[in-house]
């Protein structure tokens, strides 16, 4: 079976690529999500969960930024210049995966007080929640498209021969 580069990356160099590119970012995102629910529900401004949320947010933001930079120069640019993409599905999977940086880097920067300094705590909590949600959405889109066999996309171009598709 032909795979997207997203799935190839996770399948190669087992278990390290799976841990580096999937497990760590996803576990961090899930930790952020779960702690965020508790923080919002309990209206917590301090405490152990808030501290954990802050530490994980900073770590994940910079960790994923490192992944973004690494894959940009070692996968995206070489695949684009060589025409090595396996159909548009491959581009969508990798593109959505890498777009996660748009959501997690601002979380780190917000936690460090670099951005959104003049926002109230409620506004920061809302922004934080939206950013976490955005990351989860793009990560799941990447996973879904990453699991598609690119060969089926090429064979779907002529669907008019299927019953009921005329």
TrEMBL record:
UniProt cross-references to InterPro entries, sorted A to Z: DUF6803 (IPR046547)
Residues that span the membrane, as ranges: 20-41, 61-79, 91-115, 127-148
Top-level taxon in the UniProt lineage: Bacteria
Signal peptide location: none
Keyword terms of this UniProt record: Membrane, Transmembrane, Transmembrane helix
Name of the protein in question: Permease
Phylogenetic classification of the source organism: Bacteria, Bacillati, Bacillota, Clostridia, Eubacteriales
């Amino acid at each position: 079976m032909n795979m997207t580069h997203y799935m190839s990356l996770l399948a190669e160099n087992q278990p390290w690529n799976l841990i580096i590119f999937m497990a760590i970012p996803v576990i961090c995102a899930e930790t952020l999500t779960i702690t965020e629910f508790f923080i919002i529900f309990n209206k917590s401004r301090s405490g152990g969960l808030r501290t954990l949320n802050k530490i994980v947010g900073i770590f994940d933001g910079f960790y994923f930024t490192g992944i973004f930079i690494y894959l940009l120069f070692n996968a995206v640019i070489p695949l684009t210049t060589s025409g090595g993409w396996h159909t548009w599905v491959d581009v969508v999977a990798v593109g959505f995966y890498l777009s996660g940086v748009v959501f997690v880097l601002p979380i780190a920067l917000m936690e460090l007080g670099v951005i959104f300094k003049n926002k109230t705590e409620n506004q920061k909590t809302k922004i934080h929640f939206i950013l976490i949600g955005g990351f989860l959405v793009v990560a799941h889109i990447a996973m879904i498209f990453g699991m598609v066999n690119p060969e089926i996309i090429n064979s779907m171009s002529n669907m008019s021969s299927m019953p009921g598709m005329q």
